[in-house]
Amino acid sequence: MVMSQSRTGRQKFYDVFSHFYDLFIRLHSRNYRDETRRFLVDSTRLEDKAQPRVLDVCCGTGSVVLSFAERFPDILAIGYDLSLGMLRKAKRKDSSDKVVFVRGDAARLSFGDDVFDVVCCSHALYELEGRVRRDALLEMKRVVKPGGSVLIMEHTVPRRLFVRMLFYLRLRTLSSSDSREFIKQGLAPFEEIFADVALSHTGSGKSKLITCRKS
Predict the structure, then answer these.
(1) Domain extent at residue 200
(2) Using alpha carbons only, what angle is made at residue 139 by residues 172 and 20, rounded to the nearest 5 degrees?
(3) Distance CA 178, CA 171 (A)
(4) pLDDT tens-digit profile of 7-53?
């Protein structure tokens, strides 16, 4: 797997960040972590699907993909991330040993075409650089089955001025250089790739879900 110097640097950053990531998420999300995961899993509507196949891209320490595994006992669930540190943390959480964790580049998914019923990416796409982000979306579309869904969960921009300032400060320090512009574009980057795109929000309004269906 060949990566640019900037991507290698980002991988090393997340290897270190993996030791503090869960604490950071607890402090940042507070009471909304479970709401976000439930909303994402519920939106897949996989209850009547026998042995569903789900891929969680940029899975981090595994909270979302493990939620899928808990909900659907016969699932084939794969957590996919560039950082070995994140994947090690995720693997330790998997007491059922049901989830497969794979290291790889989101812009070069190591799977064949039309494999998964659902591909998701939670609060991570904005961290990728513009071209890499687009390539990652194209790859997600490639590996999901016709009629399947690509689900992208992202933060909504806070309404309160002070909180919004902190939000943009976080984008500047922890995300890609064009993350703010990406968020401002709304559904446009997804509609360039998918013909069927829908927007919904969690009950708290803290996160939004972009549902992209593959025809």
Answers:
(1) 5-42+49-213
(2) 40
(3) 9
(4) 566 666 666 655 566 565 555 555 666 888 999 999 999 999 999 99
Instruction: Indicate the number of domains in the chain.
Output: 1
Distance CA 131, CA 7 (A): 12
Cα dihedral value 82, 136, 33, 175, nearest 10? 70
Count of C-beta atoms within a 10 Å radius of residue 78: 21
> Regarding beta strands 116-122 and 53-57, do their DSSP bridges make them parallel or antiparallel, or are they unpaired?
parallel
Which residues contact residue 69 at a Cβ distance below 8 angstroms, ignoring those fewer than 6 apart? 75, 77, 94, 96, 98, 99
Structure tokens at 125: 């796409």
Torsion of CA 71, 36, 23, 91, to 10 degrees: 30
pLDDT digits (tens, 9 = 90+) for 114-138: 999 999 999 889 888 889 999 999 9
CA gap 63, 130 in Å, rounded: 26
CATH of the domain at 138: 3.40.50.150
